[in-house]
Design goal:
Blueprint (H helix, E strand, L loop, with lengths): L1 H24 L3 E7 L2 E3 L2 E4 L5 E7 L5 E5 L4 E5 L4 E6 L5 E7 L7 E6 L1
Parallel strand pairs: 1-4, 3-9
Antiparallel strand pairs: 1-2, 4-7, 5-6, 5-8, 8-9
Length: about 110
């Protein structure tokens, strides 16, 4: 009988752990593409008060650095590669970012609403 109780407890614990993992994986995903040394889209509306995953894909032939002092994030992205950056939860507002290697053209913003 104790083995059955232990098995039931282990199963319940596994289900609970799976539910927590799935909730973390359920963060909304938003994608920005770097193309011709510009971010597309240059403005991205995201939900305020919620953690998000920001996927940045570099379609250029050269590396680019996603940098945002507003978001306190920076990440170099190799040509043809992508990175996922966890962001938030953000307060309502505008958060600017640049491509540090091409700041004159690579500019964008996340707008949390």
């Amino acid at each position: 009988m104790r083995i059955a109780s232990f098995a039931s407890f282990a199963f319940a614990a596994t289900v609970a752990l799976f539910a927590v993992t799935q909730a973390q994986a359920a963060d909304p995903v938003f994608t920005i593409v770097i193309k011709n040394h510009k971010f597309e889209p240059a403005r991205l509306d995201v939900p305020a008060g919620q953690k998000i995953q920001l996927v940045v894909k570099n379609m250029d032939a050269t590396a680019e650095e996603f940098e945002s002092s507003d978001l306190k994030r920076e990440k170099v992205i190799a040509p043809g590669k992508e990175v996922t950056i966890s962001v938030g939860p953000l307060k309502a507002g505008t958060y600017r970012f640049v491509g540090e290697y091409h700041e004159a053209t690579a500019k964008g913003e996340l707008v949390a609403k």
